[in-house]
Amino acid sequence: MALNDTFEKDLYELFKIRDVTRATQGSRVFTVVDLNEGFYHIEIDEDDKKKTAFEFNRRVYEWNSMVMGFKNYPQILQRVMDWIFEDLLGNGVEVYMDDVVIHAKTKREHDILVEKVLIRFEKHNMKLNINKIQYRRKEVKLLGVTPNGEDTHACEIKKNEALEYPIPETVTELRRFLGLTGWFRGFIKNYAELTYNLTDALKGAGKNYKWTENMEVEFLKIKDVLRDLKSLKIADYAKEFLLKTDASNIGMGGVLLQKNEQGEYVPVQWVSKKFSPTERRYGISEKEMYAIFWGVKKFEYELRGRRFKIQTGP
Question: Using the 8-state DSSP alphabet, how is residue 90 labeled?
């Protein structure tokens, strides 16, 4: 039995990337710091070290720090980082596992926060990766996106990785391609519908994997969409939201919108979902109502307790 199989899944909540970016709304100065090999900063309890024992060259070794690949590592690291920066979270400091985002409206406020963060790291003997520090910038690259306090752009490096991806010859390669493109699904209208046949090919662990003409069409189409990605507006909670939803025979989608400075509605985020076999049997009115219900649930954080408008249909 593998070590991971002996542990219950840690259910500590991880932040989503949009949780981090929406917290930066209105900021003008940014810094991102990254722990150097974050898992090595978490020491294993003395009684548990024996569980990590392995043999090499006729000797037995035990890990003193967190083992790479341990299934609960992300939750443990997030919990530790949340504890270290507890009083700063949501006040100009956001944490996503081993990435810390520092943001403020002025350089003075920003620099004060940077000093506080560095003092915390020093106090807990945590080392930073100097090569990944982004200091005092107008926008920063973070987990595949680039927020600047008003908008979020898709990271060109990560986007190009998907654009240059060759035709998948195995289900593993297809899964990796969908992982790359799925990172940007919040930027893409009807992503679930655009990748309908590609995601269907993953069923049954891909035992009967075969590249088809429909998959080829979707593969090329999603790349075309990626080439022309538009930025997303970071939600401003002082302004009214508009939720637009729609449904088709195979799925549903929605977009949360707000007006920009020119008075035009621009997207905050796109969402989409394939219908299950049961859902596909719904009537069109049921599908449209379901899309509204689902859209409100998807954007519950942004919409709860606020007035907003709903528009349904194409």
Answer: T
Question: What is the Cα–Cα distance from 311 to 187, expressed in whole angstroms?
Answer: 19
pTM of structure? 0.81
Tokens 């590592």 found at: 73
Contact 44, 135 (CB under 8 A): no
Please give the full DSSP string across 4-70, using - where no structure is assigned. GGGSPPP-PPPPPHHHHHHHTTT--EEEEEEBTTGGGGSBPPGGGGGGG-EEETTEEE--SBPPTT-
Residue 81 has pLDDT above 80, yes or no: yes
Q: Which domains, and CATH codes, for the chain?
A: 3-149 (3.30.70.270), 155-227 (3.30.70), 232-312 (3.10.20.370)
Quickly tell me which residue has 């807990």 as its tokens. Answer: 124
Q: Which residue type does 33 have?
A: V
Query: Model confidence over 201-217: pLDDT tens digits?
Result: 998 766 778 999 999 99
Structure tokens at 264: 């035009």
What's the rounded Cα separation, in Å, for the pair 186 and 307?
A: 23
Q: How many helices (H) and strands (E) does the chain have?
A: 11, 13
139 closest CA partner among 128, 152, 156: 152
Rounded-to-integer distance, Cα 155 and Cα 142, Å: 8
